[in-house]
Amino acid sequence: MIALKRLALACSLGAALLPALAHAAGPDTAQITGQLQAARQEGSIWTAYALNRHLSPFKIDISVSAGVATLKGRVENAVDRDLAEQIALDTSGIDKVDNQLVIDPSLANQPPVQKRIAQRFDDATLTATIKSKLLWNSATQALDTQVDTQAGVVTLKGHAQTADAKQLAGDLARNTDGVAEVNNLISLGAADTQTTKAEAEAKATEGSISDGWITSKVKASLLYSRNLDGLDIRVDTKAGMVTLTGVVASSEEKTEAVDIARHIRGVRGVDADLLKIAGKSTG
Questions:
Q1: Percentage of the residues of the chain whose pLDDT score is greater than 90
Q2: Does residue 70 contact residue 100 with C-beta atoms inside 8 Å?
Q3: To 10 degrees, what angle do helices 211-224 and 116-136 make?
């Protein structure tokens, strides 16, 4: 923790002092500037490792001098070793990497440990993704739903008027890539004034939703799905009518793609005649 605080302080000082040092006089100016630049580069590499699913479990020591990054520590295999080197080499100002990382296969037998910063980053991303999916969906946009994610486990709380709306919210969360488990604690109850008002306002804005908005949300929802390769599906929208083209792996994937698109706010219909299934004849 002390080392991280020192690194953060060095990065902050580097950002603040480098412009001033460029105009300063004295024989040590270049040396100090170089040290601050190295500290910033070490911080950038460390952050990249901390946010990387493959490298975050390992303790990797990083030092930078004159554009050369030296890596020390242990990783599980050669793939992790090469990945650490490539990430360091891609850092601005790094010209060479002295990769001293030792491959230790025994690390595979240890319980997986992910640094808290990486897990928090993943959890925050999942929470934002699920909130967006709930907002974009015509059936869940007005739900009073709170989303919380801890270590990939999503908890939904709030109120819904019907069991179908509650189940749909859970399904949208469960079908999000990266979610390990969903605790659907949404309660069912009669409509209250606030919920009814929210639904009325949501319906009133349906007609003003642009085709561009619909296209972007359909594309994003397809990409967020754990069961689809959304990159192979093209989306076009005209007057609220969505056309899906491209290729999916199975009829189940095609059905899911159509279902996802159909439930995005503002969508009046979905044409998937040109969304082909891989391996099936197009004739």
A1: 30
A2: yes
A3: 140
**pLDDT score at 42:** 87
- CATH 3.30.1340.30 is the classification of domain 2-109: yes
The mean pLDDT of 20-47, rounded to a whole number, is 68
Q: Is the confidence at residue 237, as pLDDT, over 80?
A: yes
Beta carbons within 10 angstroms of residue 92's beta carbon: 8
pLDDT at 118: 67
What are the two backbone dihedrals, phi and then psi, of residue 102, each rounded to the nearest 5 degrees?
A: -100, 135
| Six token digits for residue 281 | 């004849």
Sorted by where each begins, the domain ranges of the chain are: 2-109, 116-204, 209-277
User: Is the per-residue pLDDT at 22 higher than 50?
Assistant: no
- Cα 268 to Cα 199: distance, rounded to the nearest angstrom: 18
Residue with tokens 């793939």: 79
No. of helices (H) and no. of strands (E), the chain = 8, 11
Q: CA 116, 119, 121: angle at the middle one, nearest 5? A: 110
Provide the mean pLDDT of the chain: 80
CATH of 209-277, one of 3.30.1340, 3.30.70, 3.40.50, 1.10.10: 3.30.1340
Q: How far apart are alpha carbons 167 and 85 in whole angstroms?
A: 45
pLDDT (average), residues 157-176 = 89
CATH tag for 116-204 (out of 3.30.2420, 3.30.300, 1.20.950, 2.60.300):
3.30.300
Q: Which residue has the tokens 């869940």?
A: 140
